[in-house]
Structures are given as C-alpha cells and as structure tokens.
C-alpha cells in the first residue's frame, strides 16, 4: 500500500473517530465495574465473608440515593431503560462523575465544577476510547485502542482533527491536518523504510522524502501529483532527474565513480544531448530524433557500423551520418 493510500485511510479513520467522539459527548458515560468488584471482594477474609452472608439481608430496589450529613444528594445508583448507572455530585449539586453500562459497553464521564464534561472513557465492540475535553466541552484529544491498532488524535478549539498518531501492522505514522481537516503532512516508518510526504490544500502530494536500504530520495510533484523532479542518493550513484508534465524524464544529471554526466531527452524519451566528464576524457555528444550519435566534441571513441573502434584525442570534433559513419572530423 502506498503512503498516500495509507494517509487517506488514516484520514477516513480519523473522521470516524471524530463521529465516535460526538456520540461519546452526547451519551451519559460509564465504565465497567467488573475489574473493581473482584478486588474489593478479595479484601474481605473468606471466613468473615461466609459469616456475613448468613446474616445480611438482600435489599432490592430500582434506585439508591446517597446523602451527606446536610441532607444533600451526593450519589445515585439506579437502573434505567438502557442499563444501570451511577451518578456522583459535589456539595454544590453539580454532577461530577457518571458511570453507565448498556448493551454497547461501559462508559465513564467526568465533569468539572461547572458540570461540563472533561473526560470520557468508553469500551465497546470497536475498542476502547479515552476523550479529553476543554472547558467548552470541545474534544481536544482522543486516545483509541481499536482492532487495527492504537491511535492518538489531537483537535483544535473547533473540534477539527489537527494531528493523528497511529500504529498498525504496516507501521507507525504521524499525520498533520490543516484547519479544514485536510491532510498536509504524513510521516511513516514502514517495513521498506521511513517516508515523509507533504500535501497541498487539495490533498495532492507535492513532496516526498524517502529512505530505504538502497538509498534516499526526494521527489517533487506538481498540482496534479505528477512527478516533476527527483533527487536520489543511491549506493553507486547520485542523480537528479527532471520530468515534464507527462512525467517523462527530460534531464538527467548523474554522479558515478567514472565521473559526472548530464543527459537531455526529447518528449519521446530519446536521448538528444549528453555532456560527460569521465576518467577517459570529457565530451559533448548530440543525437538526432532517432537517438543516433551525430556530433561529438572532446575525447571521442566511436564504434562504426562494421564494429571498428575509432579513437580521437582530446579537442576533437566529429560529425557522423545517420548510419553512424564519420563524415567529417577535426583534430587539434
């Protein structure tokens, strides 16, 4: 899977997470008590528990209300249409914590002194989710443990996702979004190597930096995501390639062990000119539309159609016909 596809998939996942945040914001949250109950029971000696069970009476009700010494309600435990829930209040009658279990799973909600939700914790069939809210009840951070891996999402004051950190079977990645929740940058560490991709306002890839065991590369794209320039640092060479709007290579600068070379191509990908500074000499070579060598200046070594090799010293000029035969030469 390409990084662009992975980022697009993560963007979709982030939108889905945001919808889950809103669902979490609109529901009364609660958390499972199954992990707490057994621990409490373990604190009671077995013998004492057996004795108590013989003397305690069972109390059954649909609601329990807990009051403080002043008669203020500080807690409620009740059963409703969607399941049991527990509500805890402060001394000012403000709800501060709510716990609920329904058919989708347990949920916990914590509120501030103004009754605004600040923390939401939920566990359902999709996984577990922790949402942090600001003083305006706007989701600002979400931590998710889902089937495809953990994710962390950060939101701005308008609940727009601005950053996402995720990890799945393909590897970890970091996604940055603009104020319109469009992907603008993506950093991933994958099996074949890390990659950084930058996007424009239309979510078109414009630049990509990549590193692998074979070397590193920087690729630049136009507004249509067509490759226009590539810079490569490989094991045996370094090169810069320039492409036209049809993504055809038109210029090729290489640095090899033998020396640098610059090659130009036409729209049909035929070599038209080459400038070389190699160990065996420097030369300029021009080609016709069929890729035939027609002019050479500098140190020249030519193989004729009959297989004969002709070598010319430095500062030579050689003109060749379309059949590869020398038609004129000058030696300084």
Give an account of the 3D structure:
- The protein has 332 residues and is mainly β.
- It is 12% helix and 55% strand.
- It contains 3 helices and 24 strands.
- The protein has a 24-stranded antiparallel sheet.
- The longest helix has 24 residues.
Structural class: mainly beta
Tell me which oligomeric state these chains represent.
single chain
Mean pLDDT: 83
Number of strands: 24
Q: How many strands, which pairing sense, and closed or not: the largest β-sheet?
A: 24 strands, antiparallel
- What helical percentage do the residues reach? 10-25%
Quick structural summary:
The protein contains three helices and 24 strands. 18% of the residues are buried. By secondary structure, the protein is mainly beta.
Defining traits:
single chain, 332 residues, mainly beta, 24-stranded antiparallel β-sheet, 12% helix, disordered N terminus
Task: Lay out the secondary structure.
Blueprint: H1 3-26, H2 36-42, H3 46-55, E1 63-67, E2 73-80, E3 83-89, E4 95-102, E5 105-111, E6 117-124, E7 127-133, E8 139-146, E9 149-155, E10 161-168, E11 171-177, E12 183-190, E13 193-199, E14 205-212, E15 215-221, E16 227-234, E17 238-243, E18 249-256, E19 259-265, E20 271-278, E21 281-287, E22 293-303, E23 309-320, E24 326-331
Antiparallel strand pairs: 1-2, 2-3, 3-4, 4-5, 5-6, 6-7, 7-8, 8-9, 9-10, 10-11, 11-12, 12-13, 13-14, 14-15, 15-16, 16-17, 17-18, 18-19, 19-20, 20-21, 21-22, 22-23, 23-24
